[in-house]
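Input sequence (137 aa), recorded before submission:
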Amino acid sequence: MSISLMLVDDDHIQHKIIELMIKRIDIPLKYKAYSHAQAVLSFLIKHHKNYTLLPDLILLDLDMPEISGWDFLDIFEIFKQYFAKKVSIIILTSSVDPRDRERIAMYESVKGFYSKPFTQDALEDILESGYITLKKK
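Predicted structure, token format:
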């Protein structure tokens, strides 16, 4: 069974970096990158009953235009109860504000907080750490 991963980050360079990291991993992994949180929210809501289309994990940047990562989390927490499977979120940000780490504790779906620049070791840590529980439907 493969892992489905979505990246939500307005930095296209980050998209490419993570894409290259994924190619080095010996784990079956489906990957999609989005620049706008609204597109991901629309996708999740539209496909909320489709187990195979929902991601297992979302890597989420906090500082984005239009809908910030914080806004995304607020909306996600409302709708997650309708999803066909559990979707975990990892914060991936350049923020160094310690209040951000405290604030993420309010969100049940957030399983971790990683600072940019994101590294291969961080990706492997996330995939091996049990943040994602894969179950066959």
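Checked by second reader. The chain has one domain: 3-128.
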